[in-house]
Amino acid sequence: MKDVQNSADNRGIAIQRVGIRDAHIPLQIKTKAGDYQQVLANISFTVSLPMEYKGTHMSRFQEILNKWTSKPIAEPEMADILQEAMERLQAERADIRIEFKYFVDRVAPVSQYKSVLDVDCLFDGSLNKNSPLQFILGVKVPYTSLCPCSKEISEYGAHNQRGIMNVQVSFDDFHECILIEDLVLLMEQQASCQVYPLLKREDEKFVTEKAYDNPKFVEDILRDGVLALRKLPGLKWFSLDCDNFESIHNHSAYASHEEYVE
Amino acid sequence: MKDVQNSADNRGIAIQRVGIRDAHIPLQIKTKAGDYQQVLANISFTVSLPMEYKGTHMSRFQEILNKWTSKPIAEPEMADILQEAMERLQAERADIRIEFKYFVDRVAPVSQYKSVLDVDCLFDGSLNKNSPLQFILGVKVPYTSLCPCSKEISEYGAHNQRGIMNVQVSFDDFHECILIEDLVLLMEQQASCQVYPLLKREDEKFVTEKAYDNPKFVEDILRDGVLALRKLPGLKWFSLDCDNFESIHNHSAYASHEEYVE
Amino acid sequence: MKDVQNSADNRGIAIQRVGIRDAHIPLQIKTKAGDYQQVLANISFTVSLPMEYKGTHMSRFQEILNKWTSKPIAEPEMADILQEAMERLQAERADIRIEFKYFVDRVAPVSQYKSVLDVDCLFDGSLNKNSPLQFILGVKVPYTSLCPCSKEISEYGAHNQRGIMNVQVSFDDFHECILIEDLVLLMEQQASCQVYPLLKREDEKFVTEKAYDNPKFVEDILRDGVLALRKLPGLKWFSLDCDNFESIHNHSAYASHEEYVE
Amino acid sequence: MKDVQNSADNRGIAIQRVGIRDAHIPLQIKTKAGDYQQVLANISFTVSLPMEYKGTHMSRFQEILNKWTSKPIAEPEMADILQEAMERLQAERADIRIEFKYFVDRVAPVSQYKSVLDVDCLFDGSLNKNSPLQFILGVKVPYTSLCPCSKEISEYGAHNQRGIMNVQVSFDDFHECILIEDLVLLMEQQASCQVYPLLKREDEKFVTEKAYDNPKFVEDILRDGVLALRKLPGLKWFSLDCDNFESIHNHSAYASHEEYVE
Questions:
Q1: pLDDT in 10s for each residue of chain D, 262 residues
Q2: Searching chain D, which residue's CA lies closest to the CA of residue B26?
Q3: How crowded is residue C74: how many other Cβ atoms within 10 Å of its Cβ?
Q4: A84, exposed or middle or buried, with CB in 10 Å at 0-12, 13-18, 19+?
Q5: Beta carbons of C154 and D211 less than 8 Å apart
Q6: I need a surface site. Which of A203, B190, C77, C234 has the fewest CB within 10 A?
Q7: Cα distance between residue D17 and residue A239, in whole Å
Q8: How would DSSP label each residue in B130-144?
C-alpha cells in the first residue's frame, strides 16, 4: 500500500508544527503526595516536518500517547514523550500541550471541613535536537476579589466577585519546578480571599470578613502575584493574567504581565 | 439529476424535526422604539418529514432565511417564516430557534452616563398545520446578587457576585407578548441590583449600597421573579432559572422554576 | 449564629429546584467489565424547597457529593444520592445531573490496534417521595456520515463528515438499563461508519470504503437509530438527535426525534 | 469622593496591560464595497500602567468605545482609538483586540445562488508612544479538505471534512493591508474546496468532484497557504494554523507555521 505521506515534496517549506489536536486521553499526573491523580487530558501533539517530506504519520502520535495512559507523568516524562515522538517521526523538534482539570485538597478555614477544588492546569513541553526540554507549567486559580474603590466610597458594603488567575511558569532546571499544589496556594494568597467548594456558616463569616479586610484591585492582585513569582528560586520566565468577573458589570476587569526573570 | 431526497422510504418513521443547525445569519430585530436592531443570529430551523420521503431539501432553509436578512422580525414574522417553510418543504410542522445578542440602552443611576448592555435573547417558534404559532421569547439578564446570610453573620461586608437569569415566556396571543426591553427591565429589578457597562464613581457608590440594602438569595430572586411574571397580562407559560456565579466558591448557586399560568 | 435560610418565607412559592450547578468533582463510574472508571464530573444537584422556608442549605450538596468521590456509581447509587439529599435537606424531591467524559475501548477494524475513544455521557436522576427513581442515561456518540445525494450525482467521491448522535434513554426498571459501552456500540452502527482514535493505513482504506458503501443522510441515521432503540427491551422513552458537521457548509445538517415506547 | 485608583503605589511594578475584557459592543466595520457592516464585537482593551499609580480608570475604556458604535472602523481608526486611550489614561501604551463575525458574499459555483458566509475575524492593535500602530488582521476561514492518502489507498471514495484556517497577517504599512474579503478568498483557494451556505444539487456535484480532484493533507493546505501569503506585497509577518475536523477520528489533524517575511 503506497505511503503517500512519505513521498517527496518540492515546495521547499519546512513545517514548524504538524500533528493532532483536541485529542482526549486519560492520563496520570504525579502529585505532591508522591502518588498520582487520574485526569482527563486534552492534548495537542506535534512535530516539525522537513521540507523534503509530503506529510507526517498521524497515527504514531496516538500510539505514543496510548502507552502513557497508565504511567504517571511529571516534567521529566514530558521529555521522554517528546523524545519518542522525535525518534519515531524522525523530527528535529516536538511539542506537546496537555490541558487537564486537577483537584487540590481544601480545608474550610474555621470548620475544617474537607473538600476538593478543581483547577485547570497546563503542561506545555518543547524539545529540540540541540537543547534541553522547555517546560511550562500553567494553572488557572479561582479567587475572590473585593474592590478597594467601592469599599472606600460606599457607606457600607463593597462589590466583590470571583476571578481567575492564569499563571504560567518556566524554570531553568526541572529539579526546581514548583508543584501544582504549591503554585495554587502561592497565587491564591495574592487575592482578597481564596475560594472553597465547601463552607459552613462560620467559614462564610470568615471569608466575607477576610475579603472585606483585604480589598484589592485587579492591578493589586497582579502586582502582588508578580512579587510572589519573582521570589521563586530558579524561575526563568512567567506570565500572569487576572480576570475579575465584575459583579457590577457584564464584562471583566483584566490585567496581564509577562517577564523574563534575571 | 436524480433527486435522492425525494425517493421513497419504507421504514415507516415520520421524523419530528429535520433541517439545519448552527447557521449564522445577520437579521434585523424590531425594537421597542419602532425601528430595528441589526443582530448576528445563530439559527436552528427544521420541519417534520412524512414517513414516505427519504429526506428533506436542506438548501431551502437557507433560501428562506436569506430573504429575511433585510426585513425586520418580531413574533408575527416568525409565523411567516415557518409558514413558508411548511409550504416549500410540504411539511405539517416547522420549528425555528433564533439566538442573538441584543443591546438595550442603559443610563447610569447617578451620573446619567449612557451605555448599551448586551443581553442574550431567544425567539423560538413552532407552527403546526392545525394550530396558531407557538412562540417563546427568552432573555438572559445579568444581575448582581448579595447574600443575606453572609450579610447577617458577618461583622462587615457581604459576598456578592454576578448572576444570570434565563427567563422564557409564552403568551396566549402575540398582541400581548412583552418586548425584550421591558422583560429585561422587569426581571433585573428582582435581583439585588442591576449591572451596567459604564459606571462613574458616584454610580459605583450607589450600586454598592443598593445591593447591600437589598440582599437576596438565589431563592429570593427566583421567587420575586415568579411573582413578577405571574402579573404579566396574557402570560400562558414561563420558565425561569437563576445562576449565581458565587464569589466564594468555584461553582454556582442555582434555582429554577416552570409554570403554566391560569 | 443566625440561620437565615431557615427563616420563614411568606411569598407562598414552593421552588421546584434549588441547589448547585457547574460543580466539578472526581467520580467513579461502574464499567461493563465490572470495575470502575475514574471520571471528571460536572454536576447540577438540586432539591425542591417548600414555600415555608426562605432558603436551602447549599453546603450539604457538596458534603453529600464528597462522600461519593471514592464509591463506584451506576443507576442504583443515583437513588442513594438523591435519597440522602431528600433526607438531609427535608425535601419532597431531588434531582441530579452528572455529565462526564467516558472512555470506551476501540480496536481498529483491520490492524486490530487498540485505543480508547472519548464519549460524553450523562446520568440524569430524579427522585420523588412517592415514586421510584426516574433515570436517564445519555451518550454523545461521534460517527462518520457520507451523503447519498452527493454520491449519486457525482462522477466520483462523495462528501462525508464527522457527526454526533446525542441519545438519551429511560427504562421501566433499572435492571433493564443498557450499559454505556453497549449503547455506544449500538448507536454508531447506525451511521455510515464508526470513528476511531487510531487507524493504520489498512484501517483507513477499510473505513473509507465502508462509509462509501454505506451512504446515509442525517434522516437515515436518525431513522435507523429509532429502529434500533425501539428494539431495546424495557425501554420506556428515548430522544435522539443527530448533528452532521457538513464538510461542504459552515453549518450542520440536523435531525431529532423523541418517543415514548409502548 | 476619594480617587483610590489615583493614589500612590510603592511596589515598583509597571503593569504591561490593564483594562477590560469580554466587553460586547456593536461596531461598524468598513467593507471592501466602501460602506460598512454592522457587527457584534467582543473586546479586550488595555493600557500600560506606570509603577507610581495604584490603578487605572476602568470606566474610560467604555466611554471611548461608546463613541465608536456609529463610526465605521478599519486599521486607521484603530490608531485613533488607541491614541485616545493613551491620552485619556495617561499611558505609554495601549492595546485593543476586537473579535467579530463578519459576513462575506458567496455565489454558488454552478447555480449562481447567492448567500452570505460567516467568518470569525480579529482586529488586534497596539500603540506605543514612540512607534507607529502595530496591527494584526485575523480571519478564520472554513474549508473542505480531502485526504490524499485515503483517496490513493481506497478502491473508491476518500474521507473528507470541514476544517478551519486561522490566519493572522501584519503589514509594514497600513495602506498595504489586505481586506477581509480578499484574505478569505485567497486562503480558501488553498484547500481542497471552499464551503458555501447554500448549494443546489448541481453545485453539490461540483464541490464533491472538485474536492476529489484536489486532495490535500493538512500539511498541503498549510504549505500552499504559506506560499500564497509570502506573495502578498508589504507583508511583514504572518501566522497560519489549519485544523481538520477529521471525519474518521474524534480529534483534529493540525498544522501551524509562523514567519517574519523579508
A1: 888 888 899 999 999 999 999 999 999 999 999 999 999 999 999 999 999 999 999 999 999 999 999 999 998 899 999 999 999 999 999 999 999 999 999 999 999 999 999 999 999 999 999 889 999 999 999 999 999 999 999 999 999 999 999 999 999 887 788 999 999 999 999 999 999 999 999 999 999 999 999 999 999 999 999 999 999 999 999 999 999 999 999 999 999 999 999 7
A2: D103
A3: 18
A4: middle
A5: no
A6: C234
A7: 12
A8: TEEEEEEEEEEEEEE
Rounded to the nearest angstrom, the minimum Cα separation between B208 and chain A is 6
Report d(CA A243, CA A145) in Å as an integer. 10
Chains A & C: contacts with CB separation below 8 Å: 59
Q: Does B246 touch chain A (CB under 8 A)?
A: yes
The verdict on a CB contact (< 8 Å) between C18 and B255 is yes
Whether B11 contacts chain C with CB within 8 A: yes
Helix D75-88 to helix D59-67 angle (10° resolution) is 150
Yes or no: say if A254 and A218 are a contact pair by the CB < 8 Å rule.
yes
Residue contact B248–A159, C-beta within 8 A = no
Which pTM does this prediction carry? 0.96
d(CA D118, CA D121): 9
* Residues shown for chain C: 262
Rounded Cα–Cα distance for residues C156 and C148 (Å)? 12
Which residue type occupies C130? N
Count CB pairs under 8 A between chains B and D. Answer: 58
The H or E element spanning position D80 is helix D75-88
Q: Name the one residue in this structure whose C-alpha cell is 455506544.
A: C184
d(C-alpha C243, C-alpha C143), whole Å: 10
Single out the residue of C259, C127, C233, D38 nearest to residue B36, CA to CA: D38
Grid-cell match 470571583, residue found: A162
Question: A193 CB near a chain D CB, below 8 Å?
Answer: no
Q: Which of D142, D144, D156 sits opposite C212 (nearest CB)?
A: D156
- Counting Cβ atoms within 10 Å, is residue D198 exposed (0-12), middle (13-18) or buried (19+)? buried
- Cell for A139? 494553572
Domains by residue range for chain B, with CATH: 1-97 (3.10.270.10), 133-262 (3.10.270.10)
